[in-house]
Amino acid sequence: MNNDVDVNVLVGLYNQKLATIMNQNVLLEAKITTLKKDFEDEKNLLLKTNLELQQQLDALANPKKKKEVD
């Protein structure tokens, strides 16, 4: 049995494995970026909804102040 390894085969396999890992890394980065964007969008929507509900609550709790402003 010959223990020598063809350098070209070794480099080819190395490059193939490296390319596979890089592709997986890019896909994971895309997933993380998508999740971050979705989280920020949801957070902004919740903050907007929270502000609207707080304003409605304030208007119900203090109807005199609203009438004075009108």
If you had to describe this structure to a student in words, what would you say it looks like?
With 70 residues, the chain is mainly α. It contains 2 helices and no strands. The chain has helices at residues 7-61, 63-69. The mean pLDDT is 91.
Order of helices and strands: HH
Radius of gyration: 30 Å
Q: How many helices?
A: 2
**How many β-strands, per DSSP?**
0
C-alpha end-to-end distance: 96 Å
Helix percent reads: over 70%
Main β-sheet description = none
Shape designation = rod-shaped
In percent, how much strand structure appears in the residues? under 5%
Condensed summary:
The protein is an all-alpha fold and 70 residues long. 89% of the residues lie in helices and 0% in strands.
Keywords:
single chain; 70 residues; mainly alpha; 2 helices
Blueprint of the fold:
Layout: H1 7-61, H2 63-69
